[in-house]
Every structure is written in C-alpha cells, then in structure tokens.
Write a structure and sequence with these properties.
Helices cover 21% and strands 28% of the residues. With 85 residues, it is α+β, with helices and mostly antiparallel strands. Strands 1-2-3 form a 3-stranded antiparallel sheet, with no helix packed on it. It is flat and about 50 Å long.
Length: 85
C-alpha cells in the first residue's frame, strides 16, 4: 500500500494501527451528545462579492453551543460541486 504505511508494515498492521489511532482521537473529543440530531444551518447574512457569494452561518452541531461558519459560493460552479469544511 503506497503512501500510508511504513516500509515493511503489512496491510493488517496498518489497519490495526489506524483503528487504534481513530479510537484515541475520538476519545480526545470528550463526552459527545450521540443522540443529538443537528438542525439545519441558520443563515445570518448573505453578501455578494465579485465572483462569489459569502454566507455567514450558525451551525447546531452538538446541541450545546452554536458554531459560526463562513460559506463561500463561487458564481461559476457545477450544479453539484465539492465542499470544504
């Protein structure tokens, strides 16, 4: 497997390391509200600029505290386009 494993590391060893690392990273997030279903984003404002539109949003990700976000929407894009968080 190119790119992700160390020389001499088997695929099974890499998968085991990956699973252990993922578990460790999730534990660093603390207690998560697993039963919370995030609501839709609230648009606070929309600003038209040259070549794009800027939307200022508030996200409900965990039901505890709101998260501010910016969404830049290019004027020229495909109907379905990738996003970046």
């Amino acid at each position: 497997m190119a790119g992700n494993s160390q020389p001499g590391e088997t695929f099974a060893e890499f998968k085991a390391f990956q699973a252990q690392r993922r578990k460790e990273l999730w534990s660093l997030l603390g207690e998560l509200p697993w039963d919370h279903k995030p609501g839709p984003a609230k648009v606070l404002s929309t600003e038209k600029h040259e070549g794009y539109t800027l939307e200022r949003l508030v996200l409900d990700l965990n039901g505890v505290e709101p998260v501010s976000a910016l969404l830049l929407i290019p004027d020229k894009r495909a109907a379905q386009a990738p996003g970046l968080l």
